Amino acid sequence: MASTSPWHHLYNTKRWYRLRYHQLQKQPLCEFHLKRNQVISASIVDHITPHKGDETLFHDPNNLQSLCKRCHDSVKQRLEKGGTVTEFDSEGRVIW
């Protein structure tokens, strides 16, 4: 999420902070790592389908997933750009 995006203000609302809090309480582990049977704490709440300012999609709890920063900043960004991820190494790093 770029800080200059027209929907950046949505991330600074009480409603978002509550959604984020509840998501991390419900799933405190990175969902990408869990798929590989790896236990890594999540710190980012990610929108599965990019909302692009659609407030209904933005606030939909079924459109949220918990990710670690590494997966959010690498794996998720690559997937959104049409790339693929094939494997993780034993340290949890992505193998392209």
From TrEMBL:
CDD domains membership: HNHc (cd00085)
Domain annotation HNH nuclease: ranges: 18-73
UniProt cross-references to InterPro entries, sorted A to Z: HNH, HNH_nuc
Keywords: Endonuclease, Hydrolase, Nuclease
A single GO molecular function term of this UniProt record: zinc ion binding
Spans through the membrane: none
Gene3D superfamilies in the cross-refs: 1.10.30.50
Pfam families, A to Z: HNH
GO cellular component: cytosol
PANTHER family membership: HNH NUCLEASE YAJD-RELATED
Family per record: Belongs to the HNH nuclease family.
Protein name according to UniProt: Putative HNH nuclease YajD
Species, as recorded: Cronobacter malonaticus
Lineage: Bacteria, Pseudomonadati, Pseudomonadota, Gammaproteobacteria, Enterobacterales
